[in-house]
# Entry
Amino acid sequence: MIDLWPLLGVAIITVGMAFRLNTLLVILVAGVVSGLIASMPVMDILSTLGASFTKNRYMSLFILILPMIGALERFGLRERAESILLSMKNASVTNILMMYLLIRKTTNAFGLQLGGHPSMVRPLVAPMAEAAAHKNNENLSEDQKQKVRALSAASENFGNFYSQLVFIAAGGLLLIKGVLEEQGYSMPLDKMFVWAIPTMICSIVIFYIFIKIEDKKLQGTKIDINDHDKSIQEKKDITC
# Structure
């Protein structure tokens, strides 16, 4: 019969999160309780918790990124990005997002993660794209502003997701290689990453066509019907 008592830690985490208790404390208590129920020595429990924290310490980096980005925005990061963009003559949503897309893919190809929604899109890419859209269409509506921000997020998704496996030591490639070797198929990494290049190129072309169409829609100026009728009436009065 399967012993389900060690799963009590899952219930502890669920209850702790439901009552909004300290997250770290809840996880530690759940881990210790599960270990004790499973008859693990106390030193082994502490060793396992310490090893898990050490191996996954990079997961806490986003906690440091968020306040840093908030501080930069408070001291005018968004405004500075918009002012630089407005000084550029040929700035457009297409140019800004395609430039970020290509930078993201190039850095991914070398195994560098220089980007992300909280660190790049939110404080820099989205404000610059929004300023470019406003420059080409002064009557930009709130819905259109939200669309520009969504397109900026899409540039990150296209740039990151469809170019990760171009790096020869990418985790995804290593996972695929491991699965293939378990099934008896030997495939060197220097041949596997080549097959990710067509996908990367197709994503660039598809995103360019998509963003070009959306950019044209954003540049269209909406005319208020009431204002249009008033202008016509004023012209008639002047003529009379």
